[in-house]
Amino acid sequence: MSAFQASSPWRKTAAFLARFGLTGRALIIAVPMIWLLVFFLVPFLVVMKISVAEPMIARPPYSPLFVQGPDGWSIKATIGNYAYLWEDSLYINAYWSSIKIAFFSTVLALLIGYPMSYYIARSPEPKRSLLLLLIVLPFWTSFLLRVYAWIGILKTKGVLNAMLMKIGLINEPLIIMQTDVAVYIGIVYTYLPFMILPLYANLVKLDDSLLEASADLGAGPISTFFRITIPLSMPGIVAGSMLVFIPAIGEFVIPALLGGPDTLMIGKVLWTEFFSNRDWPVASAVAIAMLILLVIPIMLLRLAQSKGADT
Amino acid sequence: MKRSLFLPVVSFIGFLFLYIPIVSLVIFSFNKSKLVTVWGGWSTKWYGELLNDPQILGAAWISLKIGFVSATLATVLGTIAAMVLTRFGRVRGRGLLTGMVTAPLVMPEVITGLSLLLLFVAMEAAFGWPAGRGMLTIIIAHTTFCMAYVAVVVQSRLVDMDDSIEEAASDLGAKPMRVFFDITLPMIAPALISGWLLSFTLSLDDLVIASFVSGPGASTLPMVIFSKVRLGVTPEINALATLIVVVVAIGISISWYFMRKKAKT
Known about the structure:
The complex is a heterodimer.
Chain A: H1 9-18, H2 24-51, E1 66-69, E2 72-75, H3 80-87, H4 89-122, H5 125-136, H6 143-154, H7 159-166, H8 180-203, H9 208-216, H10 221-232, H11 234-249, H12 253-257, H13 266-275, H14 280-310
Antiparallel strand pairs in A: 1-2
Helix pairs in contact in A: 2-14, 3-14, 4-8, 4-11, 6-8, 8-11, 9-10, 11-14, 13-14
Chain B: H1 2-29, H2 45-51, H3 54-87, H4 94-106, H5 109-127, H6 135-160, H7 164-171, H8 176-205, H9 208-213, H10 221-229, H11 235-264
Helix pairs in contact in B: 1-11, 2-11, 3-4, 3-6, 3-8, 3-10, 4-6, 6-8, 7-8
């Protein structure tokens, strides 16, 4: 406040507030900070709190954490919901099944996405931008409708079966809809661009001279690929894989639309627990369990992204 | 020789994989028959049914309103967050803010939805606000996760931008606010526009979070679509999808045209 002027009431107020640390600068920082604290961080504390509550037939349907008894306030918490998740095989199975589906979808997306990213990164300029645009384009259309489109393709009397039977490859329709196969197709399809973009960003920076040096020193193309290209694109591989794996774990729409009643995924279990069983404490415990599962993948993603930014 | 054929073929199949569902939606929206495998001839009757469906039209209007308000709020908040993270130096709580800005991007939607709903219920019990759930709670939820996307987009623009012009302006005596509105804002405007459009799209498309935090009378378009397609293929929805694809294609072409034009000059 070097330009303090006694005549300006604005300045006076500002100077007064600044004595308590309330500068314009602090207010600007406070706006996004308070919004995210209230609507992002605090909600997790609420979930944690409710995950140790007991379900009750009340509004809201859970027991309070702080109870006022005859001798003051006391904390009433239970690990019953977590014990229930541990004991009921449904939750353990859903947990494992989510990990399995997310893992294999990630591997499939990597196997398709890597050659595509490599091809795009090596394409000459006008073509490269166009191909990238084609990768990003589906993002701007509705995800829900694109997943829905697969129902018409995969169902027993759908496009795929009709085509395969017409060319005589199969005699009876394949049962794909409402199986895990349909869920794999849906997840790979939806998250393939998430795999390709970080891989592309990494591969486009790949130095040709390293590949030439490797070839000059007598390495074949396959040896060069596994010993030079793959190790150098590791941050892209990890980032892309985590960007597929993390959302796939919590996916709800794809198993709900394409999967069958046997498709167990933790996101769908949480949804059912909340909307059908109306058991808020168990749903909260499922959410916390899912979050714990995601801690390591999220840390890996951070690591890969900071490494990718360095190079 | 082997490599030169392998890559284009795999990429071609990959692109087919990405576009076949969209193409099939467009084709079958014009199919007279309700069955996907039977071609009943060209028809626009599903478009007629779509435009006479008050449930879908009402939900679309609600979604557009929510998308507009959320995207605008998210752009303002996300831009402020990006400015704090790139231009304010080492302020207290910077690490916390970085974490809170990026975490919503990787948070599963079911968790975000559940946690916000539980917050709204707890807040209503404690302070009586927000009273009930509906458009307001969906707007708050969408603003929160969209501002993370805006912050990331704007932040990368701010990092790439040459800050010597801002420094020159403040050296010449411009106040921080003046520097921001006269210099920084025009320079990051393209990032703000893409952040707004991205937020609008994400808000319009969200099913999971909206389902958690919505209340009676505030069914968004994805919620109505989901309840319809759960029962199987609905040709009306194919028509809706085609309209969305057309709008997106026009929008992308326009921005592509302007980008090409700008690149040439």
